[in-house]
Amino acid sequence: MADEAPVMYGGRALIEAGRVARVLGEFRESESYFRAALDLIDDSLGVAPELPDLKGHALTSYSILTDLQLRSAVTDAERDSLVGLLATRTSDALDVLSKTGQSAGYRSVVLSLSAVAAAHQGDFDRARAHVRQAPPLAREAGLLAPEAPFEALIAEGRIAEIAGDLEDAAEAYNRGRKEALRNQSPRSEALALEHLGQLAERRGRWAEAADYFEQAVERREIERDRLGLDDWSSSAFATMQGPYRGLVRTQLATGDVRGAFQTLDRTRARYLRDLLHYQDVRETLRPDTRNQIDSVVEKLSATRLAYLQASSASDRAARRLETSAYQRQIEELTASGPEARQIADLDLGALKRRLATEERTLITYFVDDTRSTAFVLCRDTLVSVPLPVTRAMVRERLEAIGWPWRPGHPDPAYALPPLYELYDLLIAPVRPWVPTQKVTIIPDIDVATVPFAALLTAPADDYATAPYLLHEWTLTTELAAALIATDEPPDKTTEAHPLDVLAFGRSTFGDDRSTWNTGATIDLPNVEREVRRVVSHGDAEMFVDAEATEYRFRQRAGDADVVHLASHAEANATLPLYSRIALREDDQDDGIVHLYELLDLRIDAHLVVLSGCSTAGGGRRGGEGLIGLQYGMRAAGAEATVATLWPVADGATAEIMGAFYDGLAGGHGKDRALQDAQRTYIATHDGIEASPFYWAAPVLSGAPTPIPFESGVPWWGLGLGAAAVALGAWLAWRLRFLPAHA
Q: Alpha-carbon distance 60 to 66, whole Å?
């Protein structure tokens, strides 16, 4: 309602929304709120005398966001651009902010940030002049701006560090830490400690750096405990990764490979592990308590949907309050279950035994601007391998591959040279330490969208004959080593899963009142063929189009060892909870399965396959990876998922999925079945149709172990099936189809 309310109220609401998004690391959403606030205020300047200060408040918040973006910038060009923006926005804010009341506090913060921008631009006289002006204004504001003195001291330290005055920088950061202690702010103290750790790291004082980072980690854990299991805890924890990563760097510098590996894994999939534990707690509660929880969960889901459909800011605010109330009820009800498990050090012994049993090697990536490393773990060794790569280098190579890593229209013509360059940076250094053909990769956040199977082991210029890593390694991915560090795979009984395969597919769109329809959603003519091929194995059941309702999915998803969903999907990078996949509506539901609904389901399956577009994508979360539909299925209890890295072609996907299920039915592990299906696709296509665009999007995440299909098909039937598959592949190659984009 910002546009309808008096400008003071509307502007304040937009600024506050931008602040919330900024705290959660949602920088794009935060920027859009601040821009909207400034547009609203500028339209009314001159009408209300108090608006200049409100504009100053908006510009202050916008400047803080710009500084956070500057701190996390990847390339030099990006940093230079953000320094210029920071200088401009702080200058604009100083032009309109007064020097009394709360505005004095904002002015103090802006002066501190302006000083940092000036230091980056080499104007240290102006930087020091501005940072000297900040403390008196902070004292003037008093309790109206309690963080302003701390921000001034941190800015003083940053300026000294940029100028190379490391002793002065350390002294300023220590004074900032004392200020944080005085205000009893663990968040601010953690930030000061992180700066001190980085400074000690820069000076080569590794033990001192490690001590500072460990103290900062303790404060971050206090913050994390306060968040609980709410909707934004994963977002907030993603912004707390700095001290953990600093500690990893210092442990590597001192040769503590085991400690560095365990510290890094401690940051991985913490929210997902919390969600899985919550599912376990529900299982152990009394039936009446579980029924109460299920009732509250239904109300929570309805409220989240109402939030999505809300047409005004006041409606959204009311829905958020309801959401918080329901979450508190759930926390109170689950408090009667077993105590929450503490996050302990990773059991390397258990992990090594698991890897030895599967004859598998684990590679965990740590890609940083100053020290990038791959940890390689197999049955008897753990080594850290330095990598000649930075975050910027990974980003540049990905964008060079083509769409979808850079803006533009869908284009299957992927460039091959950057796929070899990524291999040279990420894989070649670790190959001497990998003794097995089976490999599990835990990617760092900047490596999360790398199509590892499509990386080239040597230069090539032909899609069909290129030497892809797919031909040499059987690959799977995982979110954290702790998720696989068990001696035995989870027991999945046939009693709990009477069906082998449960498949849902939707091929037609635009013919109902679904919230999905935009008028431009294309049909997917190959979905029914895909689903029928999927359910040709074992005890299976399928629901297509009118029968593939959301209500039926929610009722039946827990009944199968394998759940397959083929339809349009959408990953929401800004609001990951609203990532969604389209089924059919009915009298019970709207037909759209959102991520937030998946978090409230129990899908205890061996495998969930999401063959729609970009189902492995979503919001980028440090420590969690990409939070989207694939993540939601894992949180619901699925042992593994197959999902797609980019928008796919439904004809090629149907072909690959059919061959994938043939491999599963033949007793192969999930990773081997997917590898064989993709290799078969390449072998039966040439030209543009053999591009990685068509076959490399599906990736396996989670346990790669085989699925015990209860198939009654005799050996000769499997032989006829294999012959039919080969004939179908040959016909597809001869017809040279170019599938519609899903």
A: 10
